What we know:
The protein is of the alpha/beta class.
Amino acid sequence: MENSAVREILEKQVLTVAKAVEDKIDEEIAALERLDLDDIEALRERRLQQMKKMAEKRSRWISLGHGEYSEIPSEKDFFASVKASERVVCHFYRPNWPCKVMDKHLAILAKKHIETRFVKINAEKSPFLAEKLKIVVLPTLALIMNAKVDDYVVGFDELGGTDEFSTEELEERLAKAQVIIFEGESSSLHASKSTSQPRSVRQSSNSYSSDSD
């Protein structure tokens, strides 16, 4: 008897949702039917302008080095790069196996997410920058938004603690920090961001620890 009552409630809820969806579709169809030629032309023009702006934005991104995974040769170039692009993923690395694993995944994501600049810099050759941003463990990804370090991915701890993590797992972690635009579905993307305070690339710091092997 109790199961029957629950089933009846669920059926009513499903019918209510279905009716709401149907009503919404009917409204959209009616709105389209009310459009005249001027409205259609205005919509077309608006769409063309949106496409033009996106093409201009993509062209600018490519001119800044987006779409490829490249190495920053010096600390001076780092500051220029993070100021030029709204979103930057910077891999602080050393020539070892874990960093090469990270390189492989970042090279894939750089081509997929042209909205973000993907770069790497040798931490051992950038002591001032490593100290400034408190880079301790390698690899470390500095996730930079509007010239400020907004989040970090330190080592592989957040990626399953193994070098066998997938590109998709790293992609979801970067999307969680909003440093890339991700259209996939994952409940983890709605988790709260790191509580660490954003660190400006201009902010100084006096402590530095040696990198991990």
